[in-house]
Design goal:
alpha+beta; Phosphorylase Kinase, domain 1; 12 helices; 44% helix
Length: 330
């Protein structure tokens, strides 16, 4: 930690205490400065394409200019005014940046409510709308979590240990490949967050219906906007009662800010299933490769499995009707 603290002091003129944060790819460190402020230092893996990290930084700067009310972190400039720099370790360069610390507590573990879902939908809609006119040469990079890559994941379903679950996962993937992918050229395409999950969202400590932070732009990519919405919705399938009650509220909040065409709404239910299938497949595949980090990798697995089971019991036509009504299309 002393090495990181020295790096922050040299580059940013900040004296403080550093502590590790959980992260899947980057080295992510919280820095509590002696002046009372907190920051997040992100040091990319040397294998990460610097152009992709630069793309993420330019997106954050775009948001700061275009949509300052979107609660995303801000880049902190170095002493010489740079937004990022390459830190060398063992002769390898690592893309490095310092971000402001966002207030709040994780959305994960808070009770779901209709107002909370509206707030999430509004926040995602505002973010997507702000990013809709953002362009960057690295925006179309390949990332495994992009729903466009579903056909490439089909062979990985062999890693899903439970036979019944594997069949459900395979069916969701095949439906995407055979029925949704041919329609994709007609979908809106833009840069999206691509990981609007409860671990990446902060809410006010005294009001869990108020969003205070959107974290982790590490899966940022240019893809179909409806895929981004499906990801957010996949995490909000209700554990009890009507499965899509909270999803419909989130969708309504999003649609009011960043309208979703009817043809895309009609694919949303199957896209939610495809995202659940991705979470399960990629999770089990990666956990088998990195067993020491399995707990972190599989943190969304049980919820995805339960949500997929609940949605499977809902007729597609009924689900489509619920989601159409949420947008006023019924």
């Amino acid at each position: 930690m002393s090495e990181i603290e020295a790096l922050v002091a040299a580059r940013y003129g900040l004296a403080g205490r550093a502590s590790f944060l959980t992260s899947e790819r980057d080295l992510t460190v919280r820095v509590d400065a002696s002046g009372g402020e907190s920051f997040v230092l992100k040091i990319a893996n040397a294998a990460e394409d610097p152009a992709v990290s630069e793309f993420q930084n330019r997106a954050l700067e775009h948001l700061e200019r275009i949509a300052p009310d979107v609660p995303a972190s801000r880049l902190v400039p170095t002493l010489d005014g740079a937004s990022e720099f390459l830190a060398e370790k063992h002769g390898q360069p690592h893309f490095t940046r310092l971000l402001t610390w966002l207030p709040g507590r994780p959305l994960f573990g808070t009770p779901q409510t209709a107002p909370q879902m509206r707030a999430l939908g509004t926040a995602l809609g505002q973010l997507a709308k702000a990013l809709s006119n953002f362009r960057h040469p690295a925006a179309d990079h390949e990332i495994v979590w992009d729903l466009r890559r579903v056909p490439q994941l089909i062979p990985l379903t062999a890693h899903v240990g439970d036979d019944a679950l594997r069949e459900r996962v395979e069916a969701a993937f095949l439906r995407f490949r055979d029925e949704i992918l041919p329609l994709a050229p007609g979908f809106r395409t833009q840069v999206v967050h691509n990981d609007f999950n409860p671990f990446n969202l902060l809410v006010a400590p005294d009001d869990s219906d108020r969003v205070t932070g959107i974290l982790d732009f590490g899966d940022l990519v240019s893809t179909s906007a409806i895929y981004d919405l499906a990801i957010a919705c996949a995490y909000q399938v209700a554990e009890d009662g009507p499965p899509l009650a909270f999803v419909a509220e989130l969708l309504a909040g999003y649609h009011a800010v960043h309208p979703v065409p009817e043809r895309e709404v009609d694919q949303l239910f199957d896209l939610i299933a495809a995202r659940h299938a991705m979470t399960i497949t990629i999770g089990e595949w990666r956990a088998s490769r990195y067993p020491d980090n399995a707990a972190y990798i599989l943190r969304n697995h049980a919820r995805a499995r339960a949500a997929m089971t609940r949605c499977a019991a809902l007729p597609r036509a009924e689900a489509q009707s619920i989601l159409r009504r949420a947008c006023g299309y019924a």
